[in-house]
Amino acid sequence: MSSPTPPTAHQPTVLITGAAKRLGREIALHLAKTGWRVAVHYRDSVQEARKTATDCAKLAGASASFRANLANETAVRQLLPSVVAEFGQVDAVVNSASTFEHDTVASFSFAALERHIRSNAGAAILLSQALHTHLESRGAAGAVVNLLDQKLWNPNPDFLSYTLSKAALEAANTLLAMELAPRLRVVGVAPGLTLTSHMLSPEKFQALHKLAPLGHSSSAADVAATVAFALANPSITGTTLLVDGGQHLMRFERDFSLM
């Protein structure tokens, strides 16, 4: 954790959930390069979070890491005040963290749905509420960006609880944008297949990545740049930007990881 510097009009602060690794880390580094002070949220990835915070601090002059289990309502409610205490202000939240566990109609359970809804939708709503309250106290304006998924526009029955939780978050985009304007803008960013995982070989990932009208899906840099655009553009709210090479225009019978 690095020591924060006093905020300036040219150095806003953003809280990014799930910023220790993968796409969250790429978004954090991109925003740090463009002048944002970054609050790095993580759950269990202590060392990775510290590295992301250190790397962001080298770029922006200040960064810090914050641990919280987003499935725990008390922990979520304490998260943004902790960031405010560290930095003095927060101007934006990027909800990148996501529970992603496989289930289908056959294996569905209330417990699985609740795990996904709590961390993927409930936490984002509470953080939006907290940011709005904080901005009101300062007489300032800000933005929330919620990471969604092109699956919502190209549905298949795999990862049922995950998909339902992202559908709830997409609906929350509209409702929060209506309720929290004009103080707070709420924007969705929906990537396509972006990063590989243990479920895909490098060769399979590359082949699937090309299955899009543009011949490629999204890169981490594409998604990070879109998040930065959504945060910077004062006229965008209550909508979702799809960054997937057009994959949402196609029909996939299975999730990418199971094709």
Question: Any overview of this molecule?
Answer:
The protein is α/β, with parallel strands linked by helices and about 260 residues long. It has a single domain, classed as NAD(P)-binding Rossmann-like Domain (Rossmann fold), CATH 3.40.50.720. The protein has seven helices and seven strands; from the N terminus they run βαβαβαβαβαβααβ. The chain has helices at about 20-35, 45-60, 75-85, 110-140, 160-180, 200-210, 220-230, and strands spanning about 15, 35-40, 65, 90-95, 140-145, 185-190, 240-245. It has a seven-stranded parallel β-sheet, with helices on both faces. The longest helix has 29 residues, at about 110-140. The radius of gyration is 18 Å and the shape is globular. The model is unreliable at about 1-10 (pLDDT under 50).
